[in-house]
Every structure is written in structure tokens, then in C-alpha cells.
Specification:
The complex is a heterodimer of chains A (120) and B (107). Chain A is mainly beta. Helices cover 0% and strands 54% of the residues of chain A. In chain A, the strands form two sheets. In chain A, strands 2, 4, 5, 6, 9, 10 and 11 form a seven-stranded mixed beta sheet that branches. Chain A has a four-stranded antiparallel beta sheet with strand order 1-3-8-7, with no helix packed on it. Chain A is globular. Chain B has 107 residues and is mainly β. Chain B is built from no helices and ten strands. Chain B is globular. Classes of the chains: A mainly beta (120), B mainly beta (107). The interface between A and B is medium-sized, with 23 and 28 residues.
Chain lengths: 120, 107
């Protein structure tokens, strides 16, 4: 059974840093495209970042230069390093497994999410 | 980036009603569209991909149609478990943009 379990969320001050983790089971993270998607309180979904099987990474413009996606193959875990955090980064962060289509990807498995609150 | 616009933002309906949600793309995305259902406090769940292909295990009362820039999600007979928020998502380009969501409420 595929499972994704996020952790690492919490309260952080503006300008601070946080690292989110997503532990996967039932499949191999490095053999799949993996994404982070966030949802601000009461708002819609926003794709944040993806890491491809070959290691290429891509980011939404809103987080480019501040966030870094990575994975640890030995731990079968996905990460999101978030630096220079802003109030507008406050959201539930979901990790998701991408399903690859001809043009792009969509998300067929999701974790339960972890809440990041950026506030002084 | 491709913009996705859903309508309506909120929909009130009775159990048993036929419900249709519309999603429009700012440019053609062929059939590269997915639909998700999200219940409060839960992660989204994939319902449909490639505009009209039902994900395994999803009830047959859900269907999707459209191509290019206009798409619809239809629930043929609304059930109590279907009251939720629905999102479309394009995957024609790297930006993977979502619509703003349509909340389906009990009337």
C-alpha cells in the first residue's frame, strides 16, 4: 500500500527556515516524480516543486530561490528545505506522487499534509 | 503560466441532483486535465485524468468531458459523500496550475 507521511511543520518567524520531510512506503521515491503542493488556510491548491527521477528539480515562481526539494534514497524520503519564509508561505504542505502523462504530470497519491505557519 | 478558472465557486444542491462544474483554461491544454475531490481537513483525491478517464475505484456517477479550453465535471446523482470541494488541474505545462475550487454544499 502506498503511503506518504509528512512531518516537520510548525510555527516559524518571518525570515526563518524549516525543513519538511515526507516518508514514503509501498513504492520507491527515486523511481517516481515527486511534488510538494501547498494550500493556504481557506484557499485553493498551489503546486510548489517537483523532483524528477533523474534528479532535475523545478519550482513555482513564488518559491524559486528560497525553497529546495531533495530526496534521500536510502531513507525513501522526500524533503523540502524552506528558507527566507514569508507570511504568505503559511499553508498546509502536501507531498504527492506524480503520475506521468505525455505532456506533464498530475497527482495520484497524497500525504495527509503538514501545517507551516509563518508569523512573529 | 496557464490560468484555470472554475465556475461556480459554490454550488448548493440536493441529494440526487445532477451537478455540473465547469473549468476553463486560459489557453488550449488539449485533454491534459485532472479533477480532484477534497473534503475538509483531508488531502485531495484524484477522480479523473485526461479530462474524461475515471481513476480506478471512483464511482461511475462521476464523469468528465471537454478538450481545448473548456471542461466539465458531472456528478449524475449527488450522494451525501459527494459534498466536498472540487478542483481541476492542468498538466499541459510545467506549472501544473489548479482552478480555485468549487464547493458543493447541501441544499
Amino acid at each position: 500500500e502506498v503511503q506518504l507521511v509528512e512531518s516537520g511543520g510548525g510555527l516559524v518567524q518571518p525570515g526563518g527556515s524549516l525543513r519538511l520531510s515526507c516518508a514514503a512506503s509501498g513504492f520507491t521515491v527515486s523511481s517516481n516524480y515527486m511534488s510538494w503542493v501547498r494550500q493556504a488556510p481557506g484557499k485553493g491548491l498551489e503546486w510548489v516543486s517537483v523532483i524528477y527521477t533523474g534528479g532535475s528539480t523545478y519550482y513555482a515562481d513564488s518559491v524559486k530561490g528560497r525553497f529546495t526539494i531533495s530526496r534521500d534514497n536510502s531513507k525513501n524520503t522526500l524533503y523540502l528545505q524552506m528558507n527566507s519564509l514569508r507570511a504568505e508561505d503559511t499553508a498546509v504542505y502536501y507531498c504527492a506522487r506524480d503520475r506521468i502523462a505525455v505532456a506533464g504530470t498530475y497527482f495520484n497519491y497524497w500525504g495527509q499534509g503538514t501545517l507551516v505557519t509563518v508569523s512573529s | 503560466d496557464i490560468q484555470m478558472t472554475q465556475s461556480p465557486s459554490t454550488l448548493s444542491a440536493y441529494v440526487g441532483d445532477r451537478v455540473t462544474i465547469t473549468c476553463r483554461a486560459s489557453q488550449s491544454i488539449s485533454s491534459w486535465l485532472a479533477w480532484y475531490q477534497q473534503k475538509p481537513g483531508k488531502a485531495p483525491k484524484l477522480l479523473i485524468y485526461k479530462a474524461s478517464t475515471l481513476e480506478s475505484g471512483v464511482p461511475l456517477r462521476f464523469s468528465g468531458s471537454g478538450s481545448g479550453t473548456e471542461f466539465t465535471l458531472t456528478i449524475s446523482s449527488l450522494q451525501p459523500d459527494d459534498f466536498a470541494t472540487y478542483y481541476c488541474q492542468q498538466y499541459n505545462d510545467y506549472s501544473r496550475t489548479f482552478g480555485q475550487g468549487t464547493k458543493v454544499e447541501i441544499k
